[in-house]
Amino acid sequence: MAGFGTRAVAAAGVGDSPGAVRWARTAADFVRSAEGHHASAGLLGATMITLGGFGAGATRVHDPLMEGLHLSWLRFGHGYVLSTILVWIGVVLMVASWVRLGRSMIGERSGVGVNEVRVIVGAWSLPLVFAVPLFSRDAYSYLAQGALLRDGFDPYAVGPVANPGVLLDNVSQVWTTTTAPYGPIFLLLGRAVTSITGDSVVAGVIAMRLAMVPGLVLMVWAVPYLTKHLGGRPTVALWLGVLNPLVLIHLFGGVHNEMLMVGLMCAAVALVLERRHVAGIVVLAIGVAVKATAGVALPFLVWIWLLHERERRAGGDAEDQPHPVRMFARIGGSAVGVFGVVFAGATAIAGVGLGWVTALSGSKKIIQLLSLPTVIRDVITWVTPLDPGALLDPIRGLCMVVLAAVLVWAWWRFRHSEREAVQGIVIAFAGIVVLSPAALPWYYSWPLALAAGFALSTTTLSVLVGLCTWLMLVFDPDGNHGLYNFWHVAAATFVAWVAACSLNRVDPLRLRSATSALD
């Protein structure tokens, strides 16, 4: 195979380059290695998910394309069962491949480098480009909101129901009357996609997913780059924060705008850590103009900028040092000013106002057990005769007060170093995910992307593997969840436990030992 690789390079016109020959041989060696086999198995899993998704994913209400290809049977009866089985086998195969690659990477003699992991990310993502929306129907809402702006409506004033058509037909009923909670840049992106693809749902979904690719690319660059400042290992960071099936299947396969938001947020943090403060704030503002949650990082980036300014002035005369409060006001004002100019410009270009601020409350319509307020409500109503409907809003309000306190505490507590400031961002995002009225599996990618840059113990990595796997499995491919189905949760918990244990042990269930004993 190495000889074939060398001949292929020569045929391409670069055979005389020793570097190209070495690269071809290295690639051939990787393909033959155990890690290469794991990567190939993950690619097979991604392909199975894509194929099974045509029947079991978040499919269209009416699908003339599937009908024209005589494949509608995949969405009903035995066809649906087969499609569902195919998706779940693909998910488990992808998770197993990811865990095995991780076990290799945390070892001292890993043969996998950053470039190899980046190639695997691209390979696993490629089949998902052509999949129907997976584990969520949000992509249809994005298209309908983009069509609102395209057709002259204000998505911050009216919901998709104001613009009837094919795109509206596929929006989840709960969101048809909900105004857009996203920033102006994302609305502009939706308008551009629907202007190009018209009312074609298939082309629109693929185009919208391609529009998320820059976010994935930014994560592939920024997440391992963060380890330079945070102390982690680039390969492990990329494996945990990007190659993670929770990210690739839910964020990318599910066509969620968090793919863009998280990529821009990670890039902004990396730029500020590299003392490119204004550029970092600009990138963060773009991220907030996609989804507001990214703005949580801004106060912490001000601390990093302030630390750099203090270091720069440390060698000067004491008399030249500005008062700390004055320095903070100047840097904080600069950051807020840059942020405000970029965001205001995006809002003006989109021709919309700040209606997304009030639309953020629309997430309250989601009631499920990934949200701590809902868990507290259910526990109270389980042991008392209190009315669950009357309890939820007060509990959510109390949790929001606690969240505000956590955000202020984290901002003030984690201000003494670069690593502390990034740690504060991770804690802030984790607090938002846990304490907000609603939480969804892919929300956990927000803190995970930055946490991956730190030096994490094997025990911590195992816990994160188990958590990510469980979150990956508790939702159904069509976007519904199984959190109130005992057997679904039990199966997800068992697989998550096996995945967590497998990061340290090759055979956590001791199946090989049992087989040997039978022999």
Overall description:
The protein has 519 residues and is mostly helical. The protein is 68% helix and 0% strand. The protein is built from 25 helices and no strands. Helix 7 (138-150) packs across helix 10, helix 9 (184-197) crosses helix 10 (201-211) and helix 21 (418-435) runs antiparallel to helix 22 (445-451). The longest helix has 29 residues, at 77-105. 47% of the residues are buried.
Q: Could you give the topology of this structure?
A:
Layout: H1 2-11, H2 18-32, H3 34-56, H4 64-68, H5 77-105, H6 114-128, H7 138-150, H8 166-169, H9 184-197, H10 201-211, H11 213-230, H12 234-241, H13 245-252, H14 258-273, H15 277-288, H16 298-313, H17 324-350, H18 356-359, H19 372-383, H20 388-413, H21 418-435, H22 445-451, H23 458-473, H24 486-502, H25 511-518
Helix pairs in contact: 1-2, 2-3, 3-5, 3-6, 5-12, 5-24, 7-9, 7-10, 9-10, 9-17, 11-12, 11-14, 13-23, 14-15, 15-17, 16-17, 16-21, 19-20, 20-21, 21-22, 23-24
Short description:
The protein is mainly α.
Descriptors:
disordered C terminus; 68% helix; disordered N terminus; 519 residues; mainly alpha; single chain
